[in-house]
Each structure stands twice: as C-alpha cells, then as structure tokens.
Fold this protein.
Amino acid sequence: MILFINACVCVAIAVFLPIYLYFTRNFNCWKDQNVPYVKPTFFFGNVLPVVSQKESINVFLKSLYRSTTSPYVGFFFFDRPLLLIRDPELIKRILVSDFDYFQDRSVMYNEHDKYSKSTLFMMKQPAWRTLRSKVTPVFSASKLKNMVPLVLEAGDDMVNFIKRNCLESEMANSRSTTFKSAIDAISSCAFGLRVNSHENPDFAEAAKGVQGVTPLRAIQMAAHFFAPILVKAFRMKYADPKSSHYLEKIFLDTITERERLNTNRPDLIELIKQIRRKEPDFFDDELLVSLSLQFLVAGYETSGATIAYILYELSLNASIQDRLRAGGSIGHPVEARDNNV
C-alpha cells in the first residue's frame, strides 16, 4: 500500500511539476529587471478577477494603475509579462520619438483569417505603414465632415424610436438604443446603407456578431493576444466568419449597385471607389471589406457607449437639459447645424 501511494505521488509530481514550471517560467521577469510588479499567482498571473468575471478589464487596469506611484508597473496576463506605463512623458516617447521600436501591436497576425488579416489592427510592419499611408487621406477632416448629414439621419432615427417606445415607459435600455444608433451612423457612412436598426435589427446583430458575444468567441479573440499557439493549432478566427460573410455580401453588393447606377453619396464607399481607381491591384475586394469591417467594429461600441453615458447623465441633471433645449452649450462651444449639435 505504501509503495502504491509513493508511486502515485511520484506520478503526480512527474505530471504536474513540468506544468507548474511552464506556467511560472516568466514570473521572475520583472523581478530580474528591478521593475516594480504585482506578485502573480499560478496559471492566472494577475488576471484571476477578470477571468472569474469579478472585474472588467477596465476596472482591473484602473486598480493596477492606482496600485503604485511608479512611472510603470509590471503584471502578468496568465504567464505573459506585460508593462503598464503611467508616466505621460514615457508614453509620449513610446508613441512618438521611439515609435520605431513599438510599431506592432501585440495581437497575433492570423493569415488564415480572411476578414481580419488585412485590417490595420492586425497588420505588422512594413505592410501596416504602407496601408496606413494610403488610407489616411480618406479620413481627412474635410471628407469626414461631409458625412455629418448621414450621422444626423441616424440620430433622427434614434430620437423617433425613443419618442415612440421609451417616453411612456418607466425604464428604457439606453445602451441597446445608442449602440443601434451608432451602428446606423457607421453603416450609413461605411456601407452606404440606412438600415434603421431600431426597426430592422438584422444588420446590428451581424455587426455585433463580428467580434462575438459567446464565451467561445471571447476565448478565440483572447487567444490572438495571449495564446497564439492555440490560434495556430485550431485555426481560430478573430472575426466571426458567419457575421463577416453576411456583411461582406452587403458591402460588395452595394458597391456593385452604385457602380451600375453611377450614383454618388458622401460616404466611405465613394471615397474607396476613388482610391481604388488609382490602385485597383492594391485595393482588392478582400482589403476593402476588411477596412469597412474595421471601421464598423472599431466605431460602434465606443460611440454607442459614449452616447449612452451622455443620456444617463442628462437624465440625472434636468438643469443641463434645460440649457441644451435653450440652445446653450456645455463647457466648450459646439458647432450647430440647423439646430443639431
């Protein structure tokens, strides 16, 4: 019996010791370099509160930022050592003067992901710089300003929806409403469509589905940052293929129809058509779809969340509402266009 127990202990040590050593192999990284850091735990590093959903990644990073007065602090995302920079001058050096050393994002470049591999978010140097230089003129202030009427249309749809469905209710889901409005604005600018997601949610559901809303999709996206070996082994995709294909068809059909009818509209498709005429071999369909998907996904959540918080704060401050109704401004002066901010 004693021999059996000893054998089991030896087997357990033989199995789990290599696993333990593997997942803790980098835990002395910041200590060896005399960098202040948060002590990690086995396997999870410092992100157990995030993994267990006790904290959002934003709350976690905020707590980490406030945990020290040092210009930087080291931490671990599972077994991967990361550095949180706190000092503005150091941040400026990284993003400006020393940018050549920090050009690539940490996300893995996935050549098997048709819809993400050609986005600026995932590209590496020198392809990133080449594409960025070609598309930057598309987003100049003057050209984006021409799209303001399209944004105002989406705002009108949201206001009409609120009047019809929310005013007589004690509670309203402002986050859902503002997210749909942001999707409407970006779909109008990027896809040339006035979809009105408040009444026709299919496009909005596909837009939200590109990055996924399921635990499996969350794991697949996180693996692109922290477990590239899993991405390669299981051919994971950063963008959901089903949702992306649905939006791809809409985008390409819109371009084809616009070219057939020779119609113009002050949106991204029109600008893309112009640069495509100059370099048709560079801007193929796959690249154009990737750019539009990136424009949609990168914009709707940030815009929608901002508008939702604005509505929330306005609901708590009736005096500010009165100032806006009277045509006043809050803080900095804003430009009015036909009584629209």
Observations:
- The mean pLDDT is 85.
- The CA atoms of residues 17 and 308 lie 49 Å apart.
